[in-house]
Amino acid sequence: MSSLPALDGIHVLDLSSVGPAARASRMLADYGATVIKVGPTRSRSSVQIEPPYFSYGAGRGLKRVRIDLKSDEGKQAFLRLAAAADVVIESFRPGVATRIGIGYEDVKRGNERIVYCSTSGYGQDGPCAQWAGHDLNYLALGGFLHCSGRRADGGPTIPGATVADSAAGGMQAVIAILAALLRRAETGRGGYLDVSVADGVLSLMSLHIDEYLATRNEPGPGYNILTGRYACYDVYAARDGRWLAVAAIEPVFFANLCKALGLERWIPHQQNDARQDEIRVDFREAFAKRDRDAWVTELASANTCVSPVYSIPELVQDPHFLARKVFLEAKHAEHGSFRQLGPVMAGGEREQPTHQVAPGSLTDTDALLQAVGMSKRDVEALRSAGVVE
Prior knowledge:
With 389 residues, this protein is an alpha/beta fold. Helices cover 36% and strands 15% of the residues.
């Protein structure tokens, strides 16, 4: 890795507080970008969610400014910041940023090189564009929920992570922003990016969607090897009530597993639909004879594609993740010391000092506005008028 972070020198204005846009700016900051979180003044804070102190990296590597964007002076202050920025990320309802005077065209007039990224649930146009929604809604519309497992009442299970916000939204935004910055390096021009989380879910579901469009075979739970059709790709309870994940897709791995369990007779029947119930019964009985970690010790390194199903308290103590240095230390004046997940994307710097969490009331407003040419007196006037904090 080079001595400078990959995005050193890139300045990002982030108008979000939670969700896909906040995920995107977190990743950009972890790659070295200077990210400035633009929030409302406290008199306007009821319109924006304030995330818990520990979330989204606890403000690690971020700067903050509070501006009343509904005032003319506040809009002009924001546009001054945008004129010196490389990227703007916003997550308002489609059309809102333009209506209040901080949309792409408004920013572009002062900065032709700006990469302006709008993140929304359903995109900037289309019949669903103005729908309100959250992670579960986007996973539902994009087919993810339908292809997931089923509850006892037949309904789809609720995922254990915000897959849409992170993978379908935040990561999609980061990819689009990086591509636009690369293009700008060649052309000198920025551009506008319409990142739809629901569209991103379609990308995650591409294997199923493309199969249906080509063959009209309808994917769903238990449809193929990746959605629970075969015993070789399932979860099994161990003697101690904890669980093991088995993903022995390749025949050689399935054979290794069967041999380790003393069930060699099932090796020829890995994808024999008529025998799957029998194989599952034998697998359940075999795994129930020993505790989970005993099985992991024997099987995980034996080319069987077996791993433990960890709880969060277990994974944060796992020797593998500790060796990978994925956690770092943070300190908060009120809440004390705690660990947090550090940069885990490839190329992120994992050797980081203890993060001193800034109080939510602390901003970098004065320094940031003065850096883009506003005088100290002008900033003080805006502060006295309640336009900035």
